[in-house]
Design goal:
Pfam families: Gln-synt_C (PF00120). Belongs to the glutamine synthetase family. Its cofactor is Mg(2+). The protein is an alpha+beta fold. The protein folds into two domains: 121 residues, Glutamine synthetase, N-terminal domain (Ubiquitin-like (UB roll), Roll), CATH 3.10.20; 324 residues, Glutamine synthetase/guanido kinase, catalytic domain (Creatine Kinase, Chain A, domain 2), CATH 3.30.590. The chain is built from 16 helices and 14 strands. The strands form two sheets. Strands 7, 8, 9, 10, 11, 12, 13 and 14 form an eight-stranded mixed beta sheet that branches. It is globular.
């Protein structure tokens, strides 16, 4: 049957995405859009860019930003440019081109406003290797060259907390509709979610308006800790959705005078927040899951993918756990994994194979934290699986016992994780040597910034005792 031709009416009615500049003009005119937010995700997953009148955007949809946006640390500093790039080059302009498939409204804006994600290119047309969205595209292309397509489904945990304007004070759960903060842990409690019904109704409305496909919302283990599961799909599309969803829930929370935080470990005595990634690989032509054979049994490719994650996840740990705070989540007495063991429906292991039909056989990477850049997390996790596939690696035996009592197999801190990435030639080849060099320099600079801060623990135990 011939594919139905897309009409201008189809483009105008689309909640999310159009195919061209001409369709974008019609789409924005139909909605009375007056401004557009042009964003590119940086290394931290922060949206950098410009807000401009629609007329200016439509007259020339590209924008210029300096290469330095991909060198900026989370605190706004920059690593030394020595041995990275010439200081003149780092301040030279890149060309940011819009991906019209990401066009959507900004539902919380006061005036009719649209948003669109951009890709970064050098002035000679080369993609910018440092751009996180491009890093993910490169990994997806590696799969495509083998005749494969990756399918992912992220799960993102976050906390709702009282507004906190003084960083010296600990975070606290917010007041719900009952007038009381949540006391104790209410894992999977519907009533605890209902405490913030008005907030979540706004979140769902905002998400629907942007075409973000939320699967489920649940209450996690921590006080006022929630988890959102997104529908499975293309890695780049899902990374875009996580990128937009983080902002969406923050905006919905702010409208109710609450903060939403994706810090990995925001509250000392509560569990950390993860970004679990479910992964499967399908044949590009047939669409069949290569992790299952004709009889429904697991294939050698399935085991090689797991083995690749086991061998190489420690080398990308600075992406999966990108900040000093991230490693506070990864402790033996928490729900977070401390090693790269794997097992069938074993949530204590770093790699879990959920119960499923053969067509849906997948591997859940439970190591990443929710503070990570979704583009880089998905790229890094798929890169590890890819290396396992092309190298024909074999995994350890599946673990049936509690993995938390076993030895640590993951880096314990940021500098150890940075060193592991720097010493992996395989990861450098797959993710790009210039990206690895720049990313690790940024992480080292962030650590140096952290070390300038004296913590309450140091004042408590060292002030008068040493």
């Amino acid at each position: 049957m011939a594919k139905k031709k897309r009409t201008e009416k189809d483009a105008v009615s689309s909640t999310r995405g159009v195919a061209s500049l001409e369709e974008a003009k019609a789409w924005m005119a139909a909605r009375g859009i007056t401004e557009i937010e042009c964003a590119v995700p940086d290394l931290a997953g922060v949206g950098r860019g410009k807000i401009m009148p629609v007329s200016k955007f439509l007259s020339g949809p590209t924008m210029n930003l300096p290469l330095s946006v991909f060198f900026q640390t989370i605190s706004g500093d920059y690593p030394p440019y020595d041995n990275l790039v010439d200081s003149v080059v780092v301040d030279s302009d890149l060309v940011m081109e819009p991906d019209f498939s990401t066009l959507a409204i900004v539902p919380w804006a006061q005036d009719p406003t649209a948003q669109i994600i951009h890709d970064a290119y050098h002035r000679d047309g080369r993609p910018v290797e440092l751009a996180p969205r491009q890093v993910l595209k490169n990994v997806v292309d590696l799969y495509a060259k083998k005749g494969w397509k990756a399918v992912v489904a992220p799960e993102i945990e976050f906390y709702l907390v009282e507004p906190n304007v003084d960083a010296d004070y600990p975070l606290k759960p917010p007041i719900g509709r009952s007038g009381r903060p949540e006391i104790g842990r209410q894992s999977y409690s519907i009533q605890a979610v209902n405490e913030f019904d008005a907030l979540f109704e706004d979140m769902y409305d905002y998400s629907e308006a942007q075409g973000l496909e939320i699967d489920t919302l649940i209450h996690e283990d921590g006080a006022a800790q929630m988890e959102i599961n997104l529908l499975h799909g293309d890695p780049i599309v899902l990374a875009d959705q996580v990128f937009l969803f983080k902002r969406t829930i923050r905006e919905a929370a702010l409208a109710h005078k609450i903060y939403a935080t994706f810090m990995a470990k925001p509250i000392a005595d509560e569990p950390g927040s993860a970004m679990h990634i479910h992964q499967s690989i399908v044949d590009s032509e047939t669409g069949k899951n290569i992790f299952s054979d004709a009889e429904g049994d697991p294939t050698p490719e399935f085991f090689s993918f797991i083995a690749g994650q086991q061998r190489y996840l420690p080398a990308v740990m600075s992406i999966l756990a990108p900040y000093v705070n991230s490693y506070r989540r990864l402790t033996r007495d928490s729900m977070a994994p401390i090693n790269v063991q794997w097992g069938y429906d074993n949530r204590t292991a770093g790699l879990r194979v959920p119960p499923s039909s053969p067509a849906a056989r997948r591997v859940e990477n439970r190591v990443p934290s929710s503070d990570a850049n979704p583009y880089l997390v998905i790229a890094a996790s798929l890169a590890c699986g890819y290396l396992g596939l092309v190298e024909g690696l074999r995994p350890t035996a599946p673990l049936e016992s509690d993995a938390k009592g076993l030895d640590f197999e993951l880096p314990r801190g940021l500098l150890e994780a940075v060193a592991a990435m720097q010493h992996s030639d395989e990861i450098s080849t797959v993710l790009g040597p210039s990206f690895v060099k720049t990313y690790t320099a940024v992480k080292q600079t962030e650590f140096d910034t952290f070390m300038r801060v004296i913590s309450p623990w140091e004042r408590e135990y060292l002030l008068l005792n040493v």
